[in-house]
Amino acid sequence: MQVWQEVIPVTVPTPSPAPAPETTTTPIVPSPQVTEVTVVRVIDGDTIEVDIGGKLYKVRYIGVDTPEVGQPGGTEATSVNTELVTSRVVQLEKDISETDRYGRLLRYVWVDEIIMVNAALVASGYAQVATYPPDVKYQQYFLELQRKAEVAGLGLWVVSQPIPATEGVFVGSINSDVYHYPACEYAQRINPENQMWLNSPADTIAQGYRPCKRCDPP
Ligand SMILES: [Zn+2]
Question: Residue 190 C-alpha to ligand 1 middle, in angstroms?
């Protein structure tokens, strides 16, 4: 199982150039009605400011969500975005909505009409798919990229740690070589964090345990 990482990474890696979204399964190209603009600054992972005819507009990427700056992955998401679009001329593609409730332009952002930044962020594992109808044109494509990032453990997708068992047929302590029935008074004294749960006599032997003399398990 994969989970979206909630812990703060120990190191902040400098992301290598964001992988271009794979176009083998779902070839996509920007629709003809794109607007070419210059990126003035990168605000965070999924927001930029652009110059359109001398006026500044904030652009929020459609269909994706990156961690806020200050949250785990926020810096990395911003770096991926920065590498792709800083000071560049990019192409904006509209879906259905013009703006969000904050007045930001809602757009798909293309670099060289080949790399869609929204998709590249999902592919890098530093953005999650966030669908807000009616702007759903590339939803399936984004979900496909997200699945691949998740399986590959990219970005913030990490393999979850197996949860240690908290019950079983027998219990021992990781600090001793004796195992008990859980009801044994000695078993009850084992600190929860030191419990080693075992499910069969074969299990206990494999783990190097011997039976308690008091509760006398098999
Ligand atoms: Zn015992």
Answer: 11
How far apart are the CA of 179 and the centre of ligand 1, in A? Answer: 6
**In the structure encoding, which two tokens stand for residue 58, read together?**
């904030």
CA-based nearest residue to 125, from 10, 13, 11, 26: 13
Q: Averaged in consecutive runs of 10 residues, what is the pLDDT profile of the chain (218 residues)?
A: 46 44 53 82 97 93 94 92 95 94 95 93 96 95 95 83 74 93 94 90 87 95
Terminal Cα-to-Cα distance of the chain (whole angstroms): 35
3-state helix, strand, coil in the chain (%, to 5): 20, 30, 50
Provide the whole-model pTM. 0.62
**Domain 2-159: CATH class, spelled out:** mainly beta
Active site residues: 60, 68, 104
- Residue ranges covered by each domain of the chain: 2-159, 170-211
Cα of 188 to ligand 1 centre, how many Å?
9
